[in-house]
């Protein structure tokens, strides 16, 4: 089961109208662009999709639009359903199952400082709520503490849990999880250092910048499998430079600006995210036009 | 304007049905109990109210129920409207204004790591969206970083901003804010060390345990004003011991258990909060039955 | 025993020659100045004294000079002996006992991330090494983690341990320690918020800025005992403003500059501490010349 | 210059007598054992050597003993000279130069929270004090904050600075430094995840467990250069398991226990490090006797 999910996924952006409403046309524009990257699949309704600023009802709608927009393609679809309350998470999970999604994923509960026991039971109930495989999540920067290997391992052992999205810099923990759970999918969540997670045992990646540089990540994954370390480093250097540019203007606003530059009508971010100053745009656009970058975004 | 808001407020709990739906009857039970504490007012729809697990629509409904349940009382009502997106925050703020609330408050935006600039503009837009005074919020444990005095001061200087709820241990910053903003309300958010915030310049408090020990906090505030330091310490010791008991079982579940023990039918917490183990209950109940505590909760 | 130690102490500066060697004359100049502040005593060889940059041999010499310079005065002397290794700590402790110091104190071992068990045994061995009362230390900013109440309480229960220097913002823990250890001395280590530690249960203070504003801290302590909260706040505001000025130029260099401005030939700090830029000096000197400050430093 | 220093180094242990004095014979025993590992060199007087618990005079003595014990071998010698004060650091640096060491290294100043400007000037003065190349150090866990790329890059650009020992989990920063400083040596300081630092751009490693598993790290480095990713992972798994065992008993005590088991009379750690409980020893010894481990430690 898990091998079928391994690989490289775009953490899909959400398409908003100029008034910040969810916009079906723009959502389809984004999906169409990402499908052309040749990735393994899409991670729908996650943090990159600004789901932290969207209502559960909007996420229902988005799940349906994205599913419809990918009909006829071989892409895998993972629905992020990690809403603050367990009941909303389960409602979203069941909707995704009904629509034909391939897997679920969920942030750990994060609206409060929940105990490890509360996190365990959240994932246990969620995993039991559908027949879909569930991808859990480690993201200390969002939750406020690092999980131990024992805590993560206990959740990975639950029926229905197929893997983890690992967005932490602690690669000791990643490699310990790989050793204890050889059949689990481990997606590394740091685009700019993907190669370090891959050598530590990740067999897939999920990232924001894959919306723009998807082809490059596919190539990096192949080079990694082939032991072509120098090529891996060269491709990673391009990805890292892009992230450096994004840090200057804000990651989500910067990616949406990039897509607009590439001809994708994707709309704005939702407030409190701020619109880019004109000053910040130029280095980002210049990057996309560099001779060594252009082939990856064309 | 600000003096009119100073004082002691309960961070109101939410009343849920056994199936975790918002329950009007139980919400009224909680309001009735808290009104008997003699506090200055209620802080409605905040973190203590599990608003982090509720939808914007539920918060609309709760605002109306609480307003109705307090009709005929002199209590002040502050509506917490800090939803993840600015647009939902503004919708809630306007609803509160229409219903006749006295003030607004909002967590800083916290679904992502927003920049100080984004936080400033969030509060600026929110403060401008109604005619009600706005109470901002400093809570590093939730947002992931401590704001500087300059950042907080710039927001306090915005038109329509009347004060701050300060839930941080950095009392140097609290006293600097008091010095720079003598007319602002500063509510201290740490129940168990209220006296330390008060001596540093807070002229009010907002807390979870005020739902249970409201009379005691009113008495502590009076003793502080009168320079009766030993009495302040004695009352604070009771409050601190209660918080120690709550830490053993979880704060929100423990307060709801306390209320039920006191005869208030308030229902459960919403998952992922967990139900108390029986083992944890006894020390909490024993505390409420202590001879020095009982008068404060009767 | 412990009551005899309670009160306000200057964390004594070290006097260095222009070439940064320990300088007896300048050390005596500093001691003479501080003795005129009317404080309860001196805390010798601590962090403020740049002991983190001095050898054990230098600390031996300093203990002797300071003891000699205080002969004939009623001041209490606490020797800080918290060197990285236990053996050096014990050697310093025995030297202090031989010289007639009144008490010992020691940072928790901090050269490595020691376990709570290692810290406990360090203090146990040190407390047993002389007949002097020992003041332990809580300073999360230096050690990298916050101790629990249980850990600190176990050390306070050791034979020979008389109290704690508490340099943490967690006043819940301070008040819990006060409740569990009513006979221990608790010195609060944050000059700029002394009043918040005092109301939480501290019965003394040890601070860097006491070298300059010692008289003011004595007055603040008296006002606190008398329940004169407004006077406490006024005095604390002066102390806080001084600390704000010091933060702009570096605490230790700024205090030495202050003393030189007040006519005390105390020499430079030791590198890596940097010399003040001229730009930074003016606000600091201006502060010392303010009409409301000048009486306290004359 | 820098290529000559690249490679794998043991962070050398110190040999203490049973009374914890520095012991020449035991120091030589350790050196002899490590020389047989086939590593590029030794890193002398660093944190692993418990230099944080030793006096500057002892470090002088150790430099001489180690130099003498390696006469006739091709091993490179890097002297760690990062004492708390700049003057002691310089004295140690000049001694190392006189003795014929190949390079210097120094922890950033860490006894106080120094500013980036103070850290820069510390390294600048140290680099100028001898003709030896200097290896700087990034170790947020010890210093209390993470340096920015700009801060580290400015120090790497100083005359005489040849590289960095990087003991941080932030591999984005490591790869940015590699990109900006292609000629610098970057030693990765995390033994248990060496492969992740190596793929990100490290061209060497310095570690505690190299004292025991030195041959394995040499083999891992060769496999990495050859693109044999599976072999790298297999070797890293052994190293990681060893570190897991060490975490159970304390790293430094555990390594000394390991050496004693392998027949090296190396003595105890210095207090406050604690002696191992018997309970903790067995899993460590069992590891060293595993069939897949034994060849690496024989």
TrEMBL record, chains A, B, C, D:
Q: Which SMART domains match?
A: DHDPS
* Signal sequence coordinates: none
Q: Which residues form the active site?
A: 137, 165
Q: Does the keyword Ribosomal protein apply?
A: no
Q: Does the keyword section mention Lyase?
A: yes
Please give the superkingdom of this protein's source.
Answer: Bacteria
> Which UniProt keywords are listed?
Lyase, Schiff base
Gene Ontology biological process: N-acetylneuraminate catabolic process
Q: What is this protein called?
A: N-acetylneuraminate lyase
């Amino acid at each position: 089961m898990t091998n079928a999910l391994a690989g490289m996924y775009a953490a899909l952006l959400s398409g908003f109208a100029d008034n910040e409403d969810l916009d079906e046309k723009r959502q389809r524009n984004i999906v169409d662009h990402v499908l052309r990257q040749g990735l393994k699949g899409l991670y729908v309704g996650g943090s990159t999709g600004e789901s932290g600023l969207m209502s559960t009802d909007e996420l229902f709608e988005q799940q349906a639009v994205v599913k419809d927009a990918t009909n006829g393609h071989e892409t895998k679809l993972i629905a992020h359903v990690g809403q603050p309350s367990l009941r909303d998470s389960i409602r979203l999970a069941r909707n995704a199952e009904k629509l034909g999604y391939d897997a679920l994923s969920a942030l750990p509960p994060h609206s409060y400082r929940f105990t490890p026991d509360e996190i365990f039971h959240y994932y246990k109930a969620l995993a039991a709520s559908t027949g879909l495989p569930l991808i859990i999540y480690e993201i200390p920067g969002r939750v406020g503490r690092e999980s131990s290997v024992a805590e993560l391992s206990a959740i990975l052992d639950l029926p229905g849990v197929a893997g983890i999205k690992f967005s932490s810099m602690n690669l000791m923990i990643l490699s310990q999880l790989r050793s204890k759970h050889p059949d689990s999918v481990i997606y590394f969540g740091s685009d700019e250092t993907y190669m370090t997670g891959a050598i530590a045992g990740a067999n897939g990646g999920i990232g924001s910048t894959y919306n723009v540089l998807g082809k490059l990540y596919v190539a990096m994954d192949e080079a990694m499998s082939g032991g072509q370390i120098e090529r891996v480093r060269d491709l990673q250097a391009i990805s890292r430079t892009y992230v450096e540019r994004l840090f200057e203007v804000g990651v989500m606003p910067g990616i949406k600006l990039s897509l607009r530059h590439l001809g994708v009508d994707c709309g704005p971010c939702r407030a409190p995210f701020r619109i880019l100053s004109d000053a910040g745009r130029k280095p980002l656009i210049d990057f996309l036009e560099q001779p060594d970058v252009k082939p990856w975004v064309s």
